[in-house]
Amino acid sequence: MSTPSLTDTLSRGYTGIAAERARITFGVVLGAILIVEAAAALALLIEPRNLAYLLGFDATGALPLVRLAGLLLLLNLLFLALGRPAPARTKLINLLGIVERGVLAVALAILGGRLLWPAGFELIAALLIANFYYRYFQAEVMSRP
Fold it and tell me: Which ranges constitute the DSSP H helices of 3-145?
């Protein structure tokens, strides 16, 4: 067996640093999105009547559905938070989270009305997470011999 040359060691070190930097960036972007959505989920659970009114729904009839939406969003956040610390080992969780956000954005856009703003936010969040996860995964694969 031959010993690795100095350039091999340096390039592996550089790609390892690039992968770590991409992992940190992915974690920061996902963490920021999770914080914003956690605030929205708590608002849906704490003040469902006011949010139903803001979204243009009948406050009395939509109250259980608004609370259910807050609970489902909170469960989704917990699910995605599991994939944040080690994204290379939790590929399925992260990919399902990205696809779920895209499907949710399309569903909210189909419902229309005042739900177009949350649909836009979910679409932007899905694209951001997909972009940074792709960059991280590419850097992680390139850092391995």
Answer: 6-46, 48-54, 63-83, 91-111, 116-142
Give CA–CA dist 23/140, Å, rounded: 8
Nearest to 118 by CA among 47, 41, 60, 62: 41
Exposed, middle or buried by CB within 10 Å (0-12, 13-18, 19+), for 128? middle
- pLDDT tens digits for range 86-136: 888 888 888 888 888 888 888 888 877 788 888 899 899 999 999 999 998
In sequence order, the 6+-apart residues with CB closer than 8 A to the CB of 131 are none
Distances (CA, A) of 48 to 54, 83, 123: 10, 29, 23
Separation CA 53–CA 60 (nearest Å): 10
State the Cα–Cα distance between residues 11 and 15, nearest whole angstrom: 6
Q: Is 0.90 topped by the overall pTM?
A: no
